[in-house]
Design goal:
alpha+beta; four-stranded antiparallel sheet; three-stranded antiparallel sheet; 7 strands; globular; Nitrous oxide reductase accessory protein NosL; N2O_reductase_NosL; signal
Length: 165
């Protein structure tokens, strides 16, 4: 399954199936009332429409109050989860903006630079499809659409500063 998801993400990123492949729903545990984001320390369950979750092969789970902190975490595991490695990530889920279902973060489409703010100000707004992301951009003044493999910690830091290029 992981090889399929990696291949799908790669093909989508390379534009081999542009606009055709939609992010798939994923089943991730829900955060409890005391689960804190390991990046910012906020109580995650207070923001159900923004939850992101990383599940490791060993069953270890981390929840986030938005995709931005999830990307900071995944790109800085040594800082936030010493002993965990990226290749041991089983599932990464983000909450889709329109229908609030949990979708596979690696195949989602992310809009930045819109007038919609997450719990920590500007965030990566996740969508099932490129068409949904484009519609959102038209409605909310988004500046750019990114794919999972394009996002690194520098993008997350830029969003903290309100920079979108």
């Amino acid at each position: 399954m992981r090889a399929f998801v990696a291949s799908l993400a790669l093909c989508t990123t390379l534009g081999l199936w542009p606009g055709v492949v939609a992010a798939q729903p994923v089943d991730t545990p829900k955060p409890g009332p005391r689960d804190l984001c390991p990046v910012c320390g906020m109580v995650v369950s207070k923001y159900p429409e923004w939850i992101a979750t990383v599940v490791f092969d060993d069953g270890h789970v981390h929840h986030f109050d938005g995709a931005k902190d999830m990307f900071k975490f995944i790109h800085q595991l040594d800082r936030y989860a010493p002993g965990h490695r990226r290749e041991n990530v089983r599932t990464i889920g983000v909450t889709e903006y329109y229908d609030l279902q949990r979708i596979d973060a690696t195949t989602a489409w992310y809009v930045i630079g819109s007038d919609v703010l997450g719990p920590m100000a500007h965030d990566f707004i996740p969508f099932l499809s490129k068409e949904d992301a484009e519609e959102f951009m038209a409605d909310h003044g988004g500046r750019r659409i990114l794919r999972f493999d394009e996002i690194n910690v520098d993008w997350a830091v830029k969003l903290d500063r309100g920079a979108f290029d």
